[in-house]
Amino acid sequence: MVYGSVILPLEACGPWFPNTLLGSGSGALLDAPAARFLQELEAMEIKPSRFEAKPATNSFSQQTAEAEFTDLGRALKIAGRKPAEAARVSAALVEFRNRLNEYLASLEKPEVVAAVESTEKPDLPPFPSLTIPEGLPPEFADYLEGALC
Known about the structure:
The chain contains seven helices and two strands; from the N terminus they run ββααααααα. It is an all-alpha fold. Strands 1-2 form a two-stranded antiparallel sheet.
């Protein structure tokens, strides 16, 4: 580069990145950078949470059912349903879930598992005739319809 009457040398790489990027081929640019997760967390200086984790004392399926019924109660309240109607819809959902869970449990019986593992077309318990409970908010009805499929 000419600056006035002085010729200045130029570096082909420049000081902004290491020369190894040029000599390593495309791998140097395409490889993910090394991350040191704990160092990155320490650098963020995250303050301790004011919340405390509370480990579950029941099964995953029971936690899911409790969360579903809590959410259903809120959704029915927001929709302005009367307590008697909300109780009817909740009871219908409990019945639906119980029948579905009974069927799923029947698939785990040792004789059914053995039949599935030994034959190409095992004799499975018949799927129960389930209908989506009336009065469910649309997001719950859609979820149950997907679960049935």
